[in-house]
Write a structure and sequence with these properties.
457 residues; disordered N terminus; globular
């Protein structure tokens, strides 16, 4: 029998039950808004200080952020081939299933549902809670209360349908870009020559490896484009364009905002600041600047939370389609164009993680440790899957192919491996908790396989 030349997710997927399938409802602008909205979250307000402390010079700061954009583009090229060749609402889940089998795909979807995506949602929600508490304090657990409210409201918004979710995302992304550009203009216009080092001045130690960990943390999230590959219009063209445009916009904004930090604070001032954006606004505008920054961070985090909720539920839906144990998440509301049950499950897990972050009294750092090692492990597997699928599906038509294959995917694998090592080396008990939760998926997988064998017999 001759192999099919063109991939179709309808041909390859054998769902537990026949349900409505996603439609191509997202335009190029919607996809760009989602990706930019996910990536530009809280990181750019925190990580530049760590980068400056390890860069060695102001020129190195800008070079590191430019390099972060290049590294992200390398990964995006790999994902563009996978997403255009296998347009599936499960995204990375489907690539891993096709390359390594159902068991690996199940563990990834379990990890994404319980650690990666929900942990990212809660991480952002705690940042939102921290900054919004500065505007209106709700008591000793104010940050946790705001985090829970944000998750409940934005999950509810996406349950209402794809269109409310995507239009909210578009407006939040536009607001955050305008706000960041305003910060850039304030910083660049700052007349503070005493803080400006010369290009040859080295006032901080140089540790490019550690600096890149923080840079790439701020660039994380562009891979979420894989989960909308089945819903984007004219996907063969728009998937690649959405990734390239998004990373270009993000890199430009990051370069400009760091130039503003350097202009307003100088390298040493950046390195010593605990909240570099707040320091810049306080020095240049005063207390009114701190108020503006709190509102801006709240907008940025809300945009990132909303986009992460929207894309995260897609892999839960794919899990429900393939495994009877989670079949309750495999329903797609055709009229609303959204996986309602998958969104509810994701929201419930996220709220339980808010409670975990509350009892540890260090929500943000706990969620970083909880998610990082698991994320980079499966990111590395997704990079390797490109090599496997190139060999296994050699005759399938690929609308886009990674240039300079196999060197670019190999470079991507090396980067993922390095960051997996770094995330294990520099994290604490939160990482152990994340790994244990993923491990808890193994007995669930075995039980599911046993049930399916019993039904067949």
């Amino acid at each position: 029998m001759k192999r099919q030349q063109n991939y179709s997710n309808l041909q390859e997927r054998t769902p537990i039950a026949a349900v409505a399938a996603p439609k191509q409802s997202l335009a190029l602008l919607d996809a760009v808004a989602l990706i930019v909205g996910i990536v530009i979250g809280a990181g750019i307000f925190q990580t530049p200080a760590f980068v400056a402390a390890n860069a060695g010079s102001d020129i190195n700061v800008l070079l590191l952020w430019l390099l972060g954009g290049v590294v992200s583009l390398v990964g995006a090229l790999c994902y563009a081939e996978l997403a255009t060749t296998y347009p599936d609402v499960g995204g990375t889940y489907y690539y891993l299933k096709r390359a390594f089998g159902r068991s690996v795909a199940f563990l990834f979807a379990w990890a994404r549902m319980t650690v990666i995506q929900t942990g990212s949602i809660v991480l952002l929600a705690f940042v939102f809670g921290d900054y919004f508490s500065g505007l209106w304090l709700l008591g000793p657990y104010s940050s946790s209360i705001y985090a829970a409210i944000a998750i409940i409201l934005l999950t509810g918004l996406n349950i209402l349908g794809l269109y409310p979710g995507k239009w909210t995302q578009n407006w939040l992304t536009a607001a955050k870009i305008l706000g960041l550009l305003l910060v850039v203009m304030i910083g660049v216009a700052a007349n503070n020559p005493t803080t400006l080092p010369t290009p040859t001045t080295s006032t901080t130690p140089t540790n490019w490896g550690l600096a890149m960990v923080f840079v790439l943390l701020s660039f994380g999230g562009w891979n979420e484009a894989a989960y909308i590959s089945a819903e984007i219009k004219n996907r063969r063209r728009n998937m690649v364009r959405s990734l390239v445009w998004s990373i270009g916009i993000i890199t430009t904004i990051y370069l400009l905002i760091n130039l503003a930090y350097l202009r307003g604070l100088g390298l040493a001032g950046m390195a010593k600041s605990e909240a570099v954006a707040a320091s810049l606004m306080d020095r240049t505008v005063g207390t009114s600047g701190a108020l503006f920054l709190s509102i801006l961070v709240a907008i940025c985090t809300l945009g990132a939370i909303n986009a992460t909720i929207l894309t995260g539920a897609r892999s839960n839906y794919a899990l429900g389609q393939d495994f009877a144990m989670f079949s309750f998440m495999g329903g797609w509301q055709q009229q609303k164009e959204t996986p309602t049950q998958a969104l509810i499950m994701q929201g419930a897990i996220a709220l339980s993680l808010v409670f975990l972050g509350t009892i540890t009294r260090n929500g943000f750092e706990t969620m970083v440790e909880y998610t990082a090692p698991v994320f980079w492990f499966f990111f590395l597997l997704s990079a390797i899957s490109l090599f496997v699928l190139r060999q296994r599906d050699a005759q399938i038509n690929r609308p886009f192919q990674v240039p300079f294959y196999p060197w670019i995917p190999l470079l991507f694998c090396i980067i993922c491996g390095y960051l997996l090592y770094s995330s294990l080396a520099y994290t604490g008990i939160g990482a152990i908790a994340g790994v244990l939760v993923v491990g808890a998926g193994i007995p669930l997988l075995l039980w599911n396989n046993y049930r399916q064998r019993s039904l067949r017999e």
